[in-house]
Write a structure and sequence with these properties.
Blueprint (H helix, E strand, L loop, with lengths): L1 H19 L2 E6 L1 E5 L15 E5 L9 H5 L14 E5 L1 E5 L5 E3 L6 E6 L17 E5 L26 H7 L1 E5 L20 H7 L4 E6 L3 E2 L12 E2 L15 E2 L2 E8 L9 E5 L10 E5 L4 H10 L18 H5 L172
Antiparallel strand pairs: 1-7, 2-3, 3-4, 4-16, 5-6, 5-15, 7-14, 8-16, 9-10, 10-14, 11-12, 11-13
């Protein structure tokens, strides 16, 4: 009897260990570019431009009910009518002062990482009506040592604080598929490198990354869309704070921007909210699954490959159906239906101020940007290809030697048959936190530093098997013409 009990306990522990590495990654293409943000600017126009993915039911007043009522989704699993959005990225030319939209390579990947609390067999699905924001649009400085201290020290101040974890949850991964040895890890650096560094080192663009908090207090979504959630002890994994005991699905966004298209041109990259530092990068999420279906998927879709094809519950639509799904034209507010989203003006859409240091104040939504040749608000980036990513490693790294993790990559210029070699885990010497100083409009204020991975490692576009196997998904962006708005308001669902 005792032997059987011990065997059962050992089996259970193995099951928990395997489950902790389970995940799936959801490919989504752009459904629209618009100054719409129902979480912060409910029923009105947002202060800055967003790249939006998911349900066609998205609008300035959408909640879970409206998303579920959408006719289609730009994500590849038809059951996922969630809304995922982040600010777009622009380049300002120093000669003309004009802003140009940077091409978003292929759309985005939303990872659903299944990381239950210790001793628990599963995670809790997002409830109906659930909403949250990760990141702080007003932040302009990273206030902690660079590179990060070892995770073994994250149990003492100031690293055991939610303030640190919110900033450590941002990543700007420099990509160069021609040089596998230069591979960087997910959440590798927490500020956007300056343009000189990007031109010299990031030949395949930059992957913007965002880890969402996964610990919930069980309460309804508050007005700030943040205070009901907290990060676990290691940002993407670890233990939840006592007041936030419920472990939900862990969301992780990846979006690749083709910054190298502007190599050799003087200017600066600025996130749509007026942030040239990257520290104010943020993302939004509204639950758009049937709650019971998401719980079933969270319990059963535990294959370590991360492929949506490996979960029999998912209905996967052809890529063409995803790219054909746009935000309903009637959901675009009339004042911004003809707003120029792709650039050409000397101000960002909505005209948010560009702030380099300190803590920016919330902006007030401005009138649409003017242009001699207006373009639709949701004109999407030019068609491009993306290689689907694998899961960020679920291993907890406590020093500079990081566990290998899932590859993530996107480019249209690299031979897909080329194999990447495993990146070296040798870490460069630690350097002090860069001083941030005010900068003129045409100068980026972020210092280039040598960083090491804070949590994960990734590989290049074409990879050898490390912990998981990569598959290739080609994603093409699409354009949406928005002409008029049919006014409608709904009360958002709450928990």
């Amino acid at each position: 009897m005792r032997s059987s009990t011990l065997a059962l306990k050992a089996t259970t522990l193995l099951l928990f260990a395997a489950y902790a590495n389970a995940f799936w990654r959801m490919p989504c293409v752009v459904s629209g570019l618009a100054r719409i943000d129902p979480l912060k600017y409910y029923g009105t126009i947002s202060e800055h431009m967003h790249a939006i993915h998911g349900s066609s039911g998205f609008s300035d007043s959408a909640g879970t009910t409206e998303l579920l009522a959408g006719e289609c989704t730009s994500c590849q699993v038809t059951q996922d009518k969630s809304a995922y959005w982040t600010p777009a990225l622009y380049f300002q030319n120093s000669a003309t002062s004009e802003f140009s939209l940077v091409n978003q390579v292929g759309g985005m990947l939303a990872y659903y990482l299944l990381r239950p609390n210790a001793g628990s067999p599963n995670v809790t699905a997002f409830p109906h009506g659930f909403e949250m924001i990760a990141g702080d649009t007003n932040q302009r400085e990273f206030n902690y040592p660079v590179p990060d201290v070892d995770k073994s020290n994250w149990n003492v101040e100031p690293y055991n604080t939610q303030e640190f974890k919110r900033q450590a949850a941002l990543g700007f991964n420099c990509l160069d598929y021609t040089n596998p040895a230069a591979t960087e890890g997910s959440l590798y650096r927490h500020s956007l490198p300056d343009k000189a560094y990007l031109d010299a080192h990031c030949k395949s663009g930059v992957r913007f990354e965002l880890m969402f908090p996964s610990c919930w207090n069980g309460k309804s979504t508050p007005d700030d869309k943040k205070s009901h959630m907290a990060y676990p002890s290691l940002v993407g994994e670890g233990d939840c704070p006592p007041d936030f005991p419920i472990r939900l699905n862990t969301l992780f966004f990846e979006t690749i921007w083709d910054t190298h298209a502007f190599a050799g041109t003087d200017g600066q990259f600025v996130i749509a909210n007026g942030d040239p530092t990257g520290n104010g990068y943020h993302g939004d999420f509204i639950m758009g699954w049937d709650e019971q279906f998401l719980q079933d998927a969270s319990n059963q879709c535990t294959d370590l490959s991360g492929k949506i094809e490996d979960c029999p519950l998912f209905t996967i639509q052809p890529l063409g159906d995803s790219t054909a799904c746009n935000i309903a034209e009637s959901n675009i507010p009339a004042p911004i239906a003809k707003e120029l989203a792709v650039g050409g003006a000397t101000t960002l859409p909505g005209n948010p101020p560009i702030v380099y240091t300190g803590y920016a104040s919330d902006g007030v939504a401005a009138a649409p940007s003017s242009s001699s040749a207006p373009a639709p608000v949701s004109s999407a980036p030019a068609a491009s290809t993306s290689t689907s990513s694998e899961q960020p490693s679920s291993s907890v790294a406590s020093d500079t030697q990081q566990a290998p993790s899932a590859p993530s990559a996107a480019t249209s210029s690299v031979d897909p048959s080329q194999s990447a070699t495993e990146a070296s885990s040798t870490i460069a010497t630690t350097s002090p936190s860069p001083a941030v100083t005010p900068a003129p409009a045409m100068q980026s204020s972020v210092s280039t530093q040598t960083y090491f991975s804070t949590e994960y490692q990734t590989k290049g576009q074409d990879v050898v098997e490390v912990l998981w196997v990569e598959d290739v998904v080609t994603v093409t962006a699409t354009a949406l013409s928005a002409r008029k708005r049919h006014l409608h308001k709904h009360r958002r669902g709450v928990l």
